[in-house]
Amino acid sequence: MSSSDVVAPGADAADGQAQDALLALAEVAPRPARRRRATPLGAQEMAADLPVARVVLDLQPAHLDREYDYLVPAAMADGVRPGARVRVRFGAQEVDGFVVARLAESDHDGRLAPLRRLVSPEPVLTPATLRLARAVAERWAGTTADVLRLAVPPRHARTESQEAPTPDDVLGAAPAAWAGLWSDYRGGEAFLAHVSGGGAPKAVWTPLPGLAAPVAPGATPTLPHWAAAVAMAVRAAAAAGRGSLVVVPDARDAARVGAALETAGAPGVVRLLAEDGAAPRYRAFLAAARGHARVVVGTRAAMFAPVADLGLIAVWGDGEDTLAEPHAPYPHARDVLALRSDLEGAAFLLGSPGRTAQAQALLDGWAHEVVAPRDVVRARAARVRALTSVELASEGPGAGARIPTAAWRAAHDALAHGPVLVQVPRTGYLPVVACAACRTPAACEACHGPLGLGDAGAAPQCRWCGRLAGAWRCGECGATGLRAVRVGTERTAEELGRAFPGVPVRVSASTAPGGVLDRVPARPAVVVATPGAEPVADGGYTAALLLDAAVATATLGLATGTRALHRWLAAAHLVRPASAGGQVLLVGDAAPGPTGAFVRFDPGGFAARELAERVELALPPAVRVASVTGDRAAVGAVVGRVDLATPATTLGPVETEPDGVGDGSLFDAVPVRVVVRVPPRDGLELAQQLRASLAVRSARREPGTVRVRLDPEEMV
Question: Where along the chain is Zn(2+) 2 bound (predicted)?
Fold first, then answer.
């Protein structure tokens, strides 16, 4: 029998009705049904009460994205509840699914098949999560099954059977040193008052730089100010009896928020991180689903965490790449959680050292700005100086060096008082090299990828395919010597070690032997780190050198300037204030826009100008954009079925690189990209049309590969 003989879609599923209409189109040829013997319903007794289970299935094809009805065997009746995991027969295969409802009857005219197995009676899919998953799938042209794979972690049977300890849910005493954290911000105390009163305010927040005041008198500050401020906001939600969700870019930030929450006396805190492994992640998820945890702190994997009575959603680090979901339907945590705050009536707090154009757009009628007055910012920030070629024109021969004399002098003086941070854009030793004679970039003979050096005595190696090029010779001039084009953390640390003998030099990077460091003591040392890997220094750094600034703004992309400013400000936030001698030197000729905003410590002004330019040029987020990438014929077919009430602007097709490493094998030929652009008011219609077009493509089994992304962070 065909799959339609086995199951039937739920009558109240709007998406199912839309896709039923698609499948009824004359041009969609139905697949011939395979004749199979029907399952005899008399073989087992069905549940007497609410005998029908409505199930959402883990099915990949877009045209099957709907809910299906099954009969509930009497033996499973007690465990088959909304949110439970089940296994069913769908056509010739068995698939997993979640029960979303128990019904007295089905409106399907055909015969219903029984559930095959109750995998677990644990209700892991809550109604709120299902509603959010449907909304995300609709907005980003995905399927509900794709979103549920992101929302509900895989089952870990042993963890599920264990009795998890209940976190302490008693609100502790607030630290007196943090009582006025939000009073330094315009609108800060009002935001906290609304949260503690059970309200749902929305705020885009630019935190003050520096470390939070220590709770114990005379102690050295060790926690960033932003983490303490987030903890006090969570405490306000707890005072109203409501739960909180805090999403951060990485595990180090999650640990900092966790430490701040403990200090602030926030109750019932669990940590939900994908990198912790299957069992710890599922344990934290169950604690939230069972109502044992009132506060969930985690990375992108936690954005769907089922926190009961959600009162506050806080997102930290907007502008970090790790907040963008790399799996279909490719939503961004910022946008998902803004949507969730509306659906669940929760307060929303979006904070970052910098500010993206997307965050700035939220201030247009949806969120309020929470920032400190300029005099307060100046009092808390380090002194910032941009060492451009113009600034260094009078320095003599040393002006053109990668680390000019002024920077060496500043580092030398600062080391007398504590640690110095050196930010380097790239990891490794010499990640990019060129011919020493003619300066032609050195390329691999096999794949034409860039060559680099792993250490001082290593042979050149391709950064794409890994092939060694010990006998490399320049294809232009025949020379065999190499020179550095880009310098990484290891070579920088080597140079600094020679310049400051006797001073410890530590490297914090994903490729460093010690990995990414979390904290360093308040002793003289040079800390070399890549953006995002800077450890917190107890008491703050005495100085920071941000090298190769021109590299940060040299790439082509919409967010290049915003991303560079974000990374510079994140490092500057770890430096002592100017009143304590703290200074930051930006070394290199970076783009003037982000450079000026950095010197002024003004991410809000830069974001406002960025957004105004994008409005004028019709670029996101001033418009909604869909990027359709894949084989030329497949892309043309998907885009060709989009028929909007208001005509869209279509750009392309143009040949493009695959979206990620290894993606080239997905496509039959060189992939192309088409960009479809519409006003924000037509964004949902565009997503629905693309979703419907993908359903037709799936039903027809059209050849080729297509990837659809709504609201991509970049368009090039």
Answer: 444, 447, 462, 465
Distance CA 705, CA 417 (A): 58
Q: Does domain 624-710 have CATH number 2.60.40?
A: no
Is residue 265's pLDDT more than 80? yes
Helix/strand/coil (H/E/C) assignment for every residue in 436-469? CCCCCECECCCCCCEEEECCCCCCCEECCCCCEC
Fold for domain 383-428+488-600?
A: Rossmann fold (3.40.50)
Task: Supply the Cα-derived Rg of the chain in whole angstroms.
Answer: 28
Amino acid at 417: H
> Could you tell me where in the chain the CATH 3.40.50.300 domains are found?
176-376, 383-428+488-600
* 230 assigned ligand-binding residue: no
CB atoms within 10 A of CB 446: 12
Give the type of residue at 629: T
In the chain, list all ranges with CATH 3.30.70. 624-710
More confident residue, 362 or 657: 362
Q: Is 616 among the annotated ligand-binding positions? A: no
Known binding residue 265? Answer is: no
Whether 606 has a binding-site annotation, put simply, is no
The reply, when asked if residue 462 is annotated as ligand binding, is yes
User: What pLDDT digit, counting tens, does each position of 671-701 carry?
Assistant: 999 999 999 999 999 999 999 999 999 999 9
Residue 542 DSSP label: S
pLDDT band at 12 (very low <50, low <70, confident <90, very high): very low
**The domain 176-376 is classified under which CATH number: 3.30.565.10, 3.90.1640.10, 3.90.226.10, 3.40.50.300?**
3.40.50.300
Residue 444 assigned as binding residue: yes
Task: Classify residue 313 as exposed, middle or buried by CB count within 10 Å of its CB (0-12, 13-18, 19+).
Answer: buried
Cα separation values, 75 from 51, 167, 433, 706, Å: 11, 35, 68, 44
User: Looking at the predicted structure, is the pLDDT value of residue 35 above 80?
Assistant: no
In this prediction the pTM is 0.88
256 among the known binding-site residues?
Answer: no
474 assigned ligand-binding residue: yes
Which residues have CB under 8 Å from 18's CB, separation 6+? 688, 692
**Count of alpha carbons within 13 Å of 147, Cβ hemisphere only?**
27
